[in-house]
Amino acid sequence: MTDSHDTALVLDTVLQHLTPDGSRSVPTRFIYRPTDPFAVTVHFLAEGMVVTWLFARQLIEDGLSGCAGKGDVAIWSGSGATAYSLFFTLHSTNLSVTLEAPRDVLFEWLQDTYRLLPAGAESSVVDWEGISRQFFL
Q1: Taking the CB of residue 68, how many other CB atoms lie within 10 A of it?
Q2: pLDDT score for 131
Q3: pLDDT tens track for 29-38
Q4: CA 111 distance to own-chain centroid
Q5: Running DSSP on this structure, what letter comes out for residue 93?
Q6: Spatial CA neighbour of 100 closest among 116, 114, 118, 80
Q7: SS3 89
Q8: Which domains does the chain have, with CATH numbers?
């Protein structure tokens, strides 16, 4: 029998990198693992290399219904080029990009993550004793 906490939920989709000159398709993979219950790993395939960012699952949830994030990441919903979209603005040391994602697709995938591990249950799968030993011994 497989423990649902060992299961990763993966969404492969294409985001649009928005620029003043138009947009460029960016193949993107969102990964949720209940073993890292607060995080969503996102891999962007950009110019032949993979760029990885980690987002709080709650940050994406908050961005679906309004503006969320400060600092390196901002997420919000709004009207896109062809549909209602979810936008990500990512800031690094020397680069800032805005990406447009299919909101409905991300919404459904995020709901799947909550069916796998409901909101509020994240702390129940974290090995707090192991973390304490790692940092305090």
Answers
A1: 19
A2: 57
A3: 999 999 888 8
A4: 13
A5: S
A6: 80
A7: strand
A8: 7-136 (2.30.31.20)
